[in-house]
UniProtKB/TrEMBL annotation:
Organism listed in the record: Streptomyces zagrosensis
Catalytic activity: ATP + protein L-histidine = ADP + protein N-phospho-L-histidine
Taxonomy of the source species: Bacteria, Bacillati, Actinomycetota, Actinomycetes, Kitasatosporales
EC number, UniProt record: 2.7.13.3
Bias-annotated ranges (Low complexity): 55-70
Protein name as annotated: histidine kinase
Transmembrane segments: 91-114, 240-263
Ranges where the HAMP domain occurs: 264-317
Length: 562
């Protein structure tokens, strides 16, 4: 072949076409100067890495078994990490993983975009390359001769050139490396496509970028494949991948370190809260509080914790106060009872009988003290009974007028010299009947106890408002806020019988039923106790045993008007 490889000129036009014989070169093994021919199938087999396909259905048993077998270990790993790693380590790990994912995604996107840009530049250079017509004619005329390998001096500086015939044959230009022919190249030679750009390989296995386009010289229609090696772009991409990997690694390490520092700083209030909880559990010191800083979730948790410890401390103080007050109230009747019993025992042991009147008085005192103890214990049991949880059962319906009527009859027996009048109208309330009657009795007992001889007590019940009015000495205004406290007794009533729990039971029972109770000074002297309870003037129809509530159609309970 007497032609040299075409060289592009400076203005991008047709390449310079030097004359003269090419420098002799020794062809490498496996390369000849004849035209390579073959069928398209043979060409595809040469360019394909393998001809074996093994499709696997996603719903095949092996695939589903493999997926199910890997799900359980992954769940176990997640549970193990949650149970073994502390919270700050998990936060740091999560931060590092998030940054690693973001950096990896950015690196891959950068690499892919750079690769596509380099490929576009390479494709643009192939499209702008113009092959000299004389070079193509000489290439076609020299076929089929022995293909000579390009010499070290005559290698193409821009692209390898070869022609492709419709029968998949090729003619390799001088100084070019033979590139394997594909079906797309044959389609261009057959006129089925104008041009095609693809990745290919030389016979030696070097990856190249190939542009095949149709040419017409005289009556001959054929395709010309221009190719450039991808080693120059691949080396740049490899360098870029290495740089991105190093930068990503540094970024992940920095993110893990920053995540650990941020987790430590963010969890410092949680550490203080944990220390406070451990201190309380160790010392039972409910006075411990946590400083509240800011308005974030940690500050909200600290405030909630302080409120909880304050409520627990108040509950424990009330419990201790209840125990102390109960012990104090029990000490007086027990001491008096023990003295009376010892006097009776000493009389029996010495044989010195007590006078009948003294003995009767002593036995009556013992009986009264036992009654007082029984009443005190009953009051304590009533106060210690917990409230029923919502939805635990059907509410009981009690007749407030019947409980008030029974309490009035009992008060008349206790205060025989008092004028007790009652005006009661029907009113039904959701309450425990026995507890409601006990509360009304306590109100009337309190009025009877403080009424002067020959005094009067008025009891009225109208539209859910129960009023008990006595004409006693009244309650000073500074003592009114304490009348419903447990074991509280007015200094002027210390000498009178009672435990100081009666009005506490009244307040507790009324509040359980959704009502309210109050005491105030009456005009003209005395005290007025007012109880308001929601209810209805008629009882609701009896509920079904399985429903636990009034059947539909009955009157709805309403709150009494103030």
């Amino acid at each position: 072949m007497n032609t040299a490889a075409p060289q592009p000129n400076g203005d991008g036009g047709s390449p310079a076409y030097p004359t003269g014989p090419p420098a002799p070169a020794t062809p490498p093994a496996g390369m000849g100067s004849t035209v390579s021919t073959g069928s398209p199938a043979d060409t595809d087999n040469s360019s394909s890495p393998t001809g074996i396909e093994c499709p696997i259905s996603p719903s095949s048993p092996s695939s589903s078994t493999r997926t199910g077998s890997t799900a359980a270990p992954l769940a176990g790993v997640r549970r193990s990490l949650r149970s073994k790693l502390p919270l700050r380590s998990r936060l740091a790990l999560l931060t590092a993983l998030a940054v690693a994912f973001a950096v990896a995604l950015s690196a891959v996107a950068c690499w892919v975009i750079t690769r596509e840009q380099l490929r576009d530049e390479l494709d643009k250079s192939l499209r702008n390359y113009r092959v000299n017509v004389l070079y193509l004619r000489d290439t076609l005329q020299q076929c089929p001769q022995i293909e000579t390998a390009p010499s070290r001096d005559a290698g193409p500086s821009v692209a390898y050139v070869q022609t492709v015939n419709a029968d998949a044959g090729r003619c390799v230009g001088t100084g070019a490396k033979p590139v394997r022919v594909s079906d797309s190249d044959v389609n261009v030679a057959l006129g089925l496509e104008n041009d095609v750009v693809r990745d290919g390989r030389t016979d030696g296995g070097t990856p190249v970028r190939v542009l095949t386009k149709s040419y017409v010289i005289g009556d001959s229609v054929f395709a010309v494949s221009l190719s450039r090696p991808l080693t120059e772009t691949d080396s740049a991409l490899d360098t870029l991948a290495l740089v991105l990997a190093v930068v990503a690694g540094i970024g992940v390490l920095g993110a893990a370190t920053a995540g650990l520092a941020v987790a430590r700083a963010g969890l410092r209030p949680v550490d203080r809260l944990t220390g406070a909880v451990e201190h309380i559990a160790r010392t039972e010191d409910l006075a411990t509080t946590i400083p509240v800083e800011g308005r974030d979730e940690i500050a909200r948790l600290s405030r909630s914790f302080n409120s909880m410890t304050a409520a627990l401390a108040s509950s424990r103080d009330r419990q201790q106060q209840l125990i102390a007050d109960a012990g104090h109230e029990l000490r007086t009747p027990l001491t008096s009872l023990r003295m009376n019993v010892e006097l009776l025992v000493r009389s029996e042991e010495t044989g010195r009988a007590l006078p009948p009147d003294d003995r009767r008085e002593l036995l009556a005192s013992v009986k009264a003290q036992m009654t007082e103890l029984a009443a005190l214990i009953g009051d304590l049991q009533e106060l210690s009974r917990p409230d029923a949880p919502p939805g635990s059962g059907a509410p009981r319906i009690a007749a407030l007028h019947e409980a008030a009527s029974a309490a009035v009859e009992r008060a008349r027996l206790r205060g025989k010299d008092l004028a007790i009048t009652a005006r009661l109208t029907s009113w039904y309330v959701p309450a425990e009947p026995s507890a409601l009657e006990r509360a009304v009795i306590n109100l009337l007992d309190n009025a009877v106890k403080f009424s002067p001889p020959g005094g009067a007590v008025e009891v009225t019940l109208s539209e859910g408002v129960l009023t008990v009015r006595d004409h006693g000495p009244g309650i000073p205004s500074d003592e009114l806020p304490h009348v419903f406290d447990r074991f509280w007794r007015s200094p002027s009533a210390r000498s009178l019988p009672g435990s100081g729990l009666g009005l506490s039971i009244v307040a507790r029972t009324v509040q359980r039923s959704g009502g309210e109770v109050s005491l105030r000074a009456a005009d003209g002297g005395g005290t007025v106790a007012v109880v308001r309870l929601p209810g209805a003037p008629h009882p609701p129809p009896e509920a079904e045993p399985s429903q636990g509530g009034p059947a539909g159609g009955g009157p709805a309970f309403r709150a009494p008007e103030p």
